[in-house]
Amino acid sequence: MPLPSPAEIGTALRDVDTPALLIDLDAFERNLRRMAEFATSAGVRLRPHSKTHKSPIIAAKQVSLGAVGVCCQKVSEAEVMVDGGIADVLIANEVAGSAKLDRLARLARRARIAVCVDDPDGVAELEAAATKADVQLQVLVEIDVGGRRCGVLPGAPAARLAERIARSPHLGFAGLQAYYGSAQHVREARDRQTRVAEAVAQVRETQALLAAVGLRAEVVTGAGTGTYENEAASGVFTELQAGSYIFMDADYARNMGGNGEPVDTFEHALFVYATVMSAPAPERLVVDAGLKAFAVDSGMPVPWRLPGGLYHRPSDEHGIIDATASSQRPKRGDKVLLVPGHCDPTVNLHDWYVGVRGLGGAEPSVECLWPVAARGALF
Questions:
Q1: Other residues' Cβ atoms within 10 Å of the Cβ of residue 121
Q2: Distance from CA of residue 90 to its chain's centroid?
Q3: pTM score of the predicted model
Q4: pLDDT of 282-305, one tens digit each?
Q5: Which of 70, 235, 339, 347 has a 20 to 30 A CA-CA distance from 20?
Q6: Do residue 51 and residue 101 come from a single domain?
Q7: Parent domain of 344
Q8: Are 292 and 18 in contact (CB under 8 A)?
Q9: Average pLDDT, integer, range 60-89
Q10: Could you give the count of Cα atoms lying within 13 Å of 183 in the half-sphere of its Cβ?
Q11: The domain that contains 334 carries what CATH number?
Q12: What values do phi and psi take at 151, rounded to 5?
């Protein structure tokens, strides 16, 4: 059960308790519209990844703007999405273990559910679960296009796996997953383009071998916030799985565009709001947001609108801002906004989103409170 929220609707920003997970609603809504409009203009479907936000409320906003459904990583995330009214969910991951597989199959009684597989034993296990639940599951073959994580080899091994799916009475071969996760964070635009081009070649090879055995990948899904433009332009991908675009963390902001400047298509819309709890020196402003408020696997959070400020030395409940290079010096009791280094795992540390309207204005206030409904949905 979620803890009490750090604010109430109508609360002035300055009175929001901390640490709090804030959404700048104006920037967030612009991000939603920009990706939806891009997908429409590119002629591809948008299936945003809900592991970023873990919220059926946000998923519904994406669907209302044209998304065909959402992706999830875990069965428990998919259950939360379906409970929240999302009718089309792809578990863009492999599922192992009879308990999970049984839940997955039962979920297919309530919504259109698809799942990925990269192993013949996985196909057999999915067929057994679907038979037990008397449902039809849509299954995508995940191919390893360079990420060296999950995925069968492209080409003949993938085609053999697709044949096995197609022969299974309770499974339907739905297409290919070709997600290149590590390419998302390659900084130079040309290098990202090169990696996606290599992935596209492997998809084309697999498509040719599928055709040779009488199969066709109706769906080729993948892409992320770092490379979605490349996949959309490939003529191969039919679906985009970008997720972080709605929030834009500090890590994605380090990616460079073709002009040699940082990519600025999407805006920072997610922040952790923190209070300066101690200010013994300009180089040591101690805030109440540390490792239990942020994920730091992709770097430290970045102080927002505090030029020259540097967040460092996080511990469980503390973080340090060095403001010696900044013209602004927050005092004890002042509050600051921090852009997370990695939005997805940061979201999973909080129970509530605090939606703030007019963040750049004189009197920003809380417009909505949304539970992070799939927080902790790891199984």
A1: 9
A2: 13
A3: 0.96
A4: 899 999 999 999 999 999 999 999
A5: 70
A6: yes
A7: 13-22+264-371
A8: no
A9: 98
A10: 30
A11: 2.40.37.20
A12: 125, 135
* Partners of 49 in the β-ladder: 71
Q: Position of tokens 């939606």?
A: 355
Q: Count of CB atoms within 10 A of residue 212's CB?
A: 10
Question: What is the SS3 string spanning the chain?
Answer: CCCCCCCCCCCEHHHCCCCEEEEEHHHHHHHHHHHHHHHHHHCCEECCECCCCCCHHHHHHHHHCCCCCEEECCHHHHHHHHHCCCCEEEECCCCCCHHHHHHHHHHCCCCEEEEEECCHHHHHHHHHHHHHHCCCEEEEEEECCCCCCCCECCCHHHHHHHHHHHCCCCEEEEEEECCCHHHHHCCCHHHHHHHHHHHHHHHHHHHHHHHHCCCCCCEEEECCCCCHHHHHCCCCCCEECCCHHHCCCCCHHHCECCCCCECCCCCCCEEEEEEEEEEEECCEEEECCCCCCCCCCCCCCEECCCCCCEEECCCCCCEEEECCCCCCCCCCCCEEEEECCCHHHHHCCCCEEEEEECCCCCCCEEEEEEECCCCCCCC
Q: Which of 203, 221, 254 is the last residue of a domain?
A: 254
Number of domains the chain is built from: 2
Q: What is the pLDDT of residue 2?
A: 63
